[in-house]
Amino acid sequence: MSDIRVLDKAATLAALTDLIELFSETVRGGASMGYMLPFPADEAEAYWRGVAEAAERGDIVLMALEDAGRIVGSVQLGIAMPPNQPHRADIKKLMVHPDQRGRGLSRRLMEAAEREAAARGRSLLVLDTATGEPAEKIYEHLGWTAAGIIPGYALFPDGRPCDTTVYYKALQTLI
Fold first, then answer.
1. In this structure, CATH architecture of domain 3-122
2. H, E, C per residue of 119-135
3. Of 8, 32, 39, 58, which is least surrounded by CB within 10 A?
């Protein structure tokens, strides 16, 4: 059975090899994650080191899903918000390793992120994802509401334009 845990800075740095592989495989698979191909390992490492620093500052919560001692999925909860948005958090970079997809791991990660957000007093979550990609079905199945589509918002890793759908979810008491 796989385990989900919150990674602090030290745990994130200790897991760099797994996290770099997870991110690299996700981008190589075509997911619009903010990076372009080719996606060198040093870029992925720099990204995760930045996440580790953000976790130490308390700006994000990094949740990792482990199976057989290997990180096979992750999601981030962005909790550093302006003073007029203390009730809100952002879901960032949901990733499941390609060889682990179809096992319900995205659902488990999202449900864990929602519980973590509720435990931190957050009542509204927001995320964005590439329009027309499989993640949309996951979010909709989990009760997220599409707020709208922004045409040409980003690029896929191969350079093609990518529309983006913005979703939100109002949380009930989950803890």
1. 3-Layer(aba) Sandwich (3.40)
2. HCCCCEEEEEEECCCHH
3. 58
Query: Token digits for 145?
Result: 């509401």
Q: Which of 93, 105, 87, 98 is nearest to 142 (CA)?
A: 105
Distances in Å between the Cα of 137 and the Cα atoms of 12, 50, 53, 144, 145 are 29, 30, 32, 10, 11
Reduced to 3 states (helix: H, G, I; strand: E, B; else coil), residue 61 is strand
Q: Which amino acid is at 150?
A: I
pLDDT at 110 over 70: yes
Radius of gyration of the chain (CA): 15
Residue 142, pLDDT score: 97
Give buried/exposed letters for 31-61 (b at 16+ CB in 10 A, else e).
bbbebeeebeeeebbebbeebbebbeeeebb
The secondary element (H helix, E strand) that includes residue 71 is strand 70-78
User: Of 117, 142, 129, 137, which Cα lies nearest the Cα of 93?
Assistant: 129
25-67: pLDDT as tens digits? 999 999 999 999 999 999 999 999 999 999 999 999 999 999 9
- Domains of the chain, by residue range, sit at 3-122
Q: How wide is the angle at C-alpha 144 spanned by C-alphas 70 and 4, nearest 5°?
A: 20
